[in-house]
Automatic annotation (TrEMBL):
SMART domains: CactinC_cactus (SM01050), ZnF_U1 (SM00451). The keyword Chaperone does not apply. The keyword Nucleus applies. Belongs to the SF3A2 family. Keywords: Metal-binding, mRNA processing, mRNA splicing, Nucleus, Spliceosome, Zinc, Zinc-finger. Residues 54-84 form the Matrin-type domain. The lineage of its organism: Eukaryota, Fungi, Dikarya, Ascomycota, Pezizomycotina. One of its GO terms (cellular component) is U2-type prespliceosome. GO terms for molecular function: nucleic acid binding; zinc ion binding. This is Matrin-type domain-containing protein.
């Protein structure tokens, strides 16, 4: 490599470039070559982390600037890993995702894409108070109507403590919330007393009728005796006396 025009060298001297200068020149040539063929915005392995550095998700390397990353993409390590991944995907029959550009099953494909659905309002509902004639437990029966629900959608429920919600402030530990959701309807939240729900067979159950598009949820609260002595060895559960 002729570096006769470098600073500190006489004309025609043809000074020998040092190892570091040779590497810098090679990286610059590779960067210019990569700029002509690679669009970083479409590169599925290009990632900018929280400290401003650039990472290669394929080779798990960190680079201080985009030029260093581009030079890395033209290097032997990156090209070898690309060939290995292509061979593995061809063997396993994997395809690239049309949205992210990543192979199906990679990190990024495991996150479900949130759908931008238009909510059409709250479903009709009916709440019936119940009392078990044997154990005298208090309970509730929820009936919700979803006439416009999709054919593949099934209503779901979850219990939420008062400290998870952000509607009523400050939170009251004496209450809990029952959430029932089914797209495209708005999620319904029912405010309940903060008692433990009895999930034994026959006490707690849910049912969805796809013909009438009605959702049923029944629950019973444990009595104070059951809450106080739950899990105590040798204590028989409350029930009908014989």
């Amino acid at each position: 490599m002729d570096f006769q025009n470098r600073v500190g060298n006489k004309f025609g001297g043809g000074g020998v470039a040092s190892h570091s200068i040779t590497n810098a020149d090679r990286r610059e040539r590779l960067r210019k070559l990569a700029l002509e063929t690679i669009d970083l915005e479409k590169d599925p392995y290009f990632f900018k982390n929280h400290v401003g550095s650039f990472e290669c998700r394929l080779c798990l390397t960190v680079h201080q600037n985009d030029g260093s990353y581009l030079a890395h993409t033209q290097g032997r390590k990156h090209q070898t890993n690309l060939a290995r991944r292509a061979a593995r995907e061809a063997k396993e029959g994997k395809n690239l995702d049309a949205v992210t550009g990543l192979p199906v099953g990679m990190i990024g494909q495991q996150v479900a894409v949130r759908k931008n659905l238009i909510k059409i309002g709250r479903p009709g509902y009916k709440i019936t108070k119940l009392r078990d004639p044997v154990t005298r437990q208090l309970g509730l029966l929820f009936q919700l109507q979803y006439p416009e629900i999709g054919t593949e959608i099934h209503p779901r429920y979850r219990f939420m403590s008062a400290f998870e919600q952000r509607v009523e402030q400050p939170p009251d530990r004496a209450f809990q919330y029952l959430l029932i959701a089914a797209e495209p309807y708005e999620t319904c939240a029912f405010k309940l007393q903060a008692k433990e729900v009895d999930k034994s067979p026959g006490k707690f159950w849910t049912h969805y009728d796809p013909d009438t598009k009605e959702y049923f949820l029944q629950l019973f609260f444990k009595t104070e005796r059951e809450e106080r002595y739950a899990g105590v060895p040798g204590l028989a559960p409350s029930g009908p006396r014989k």
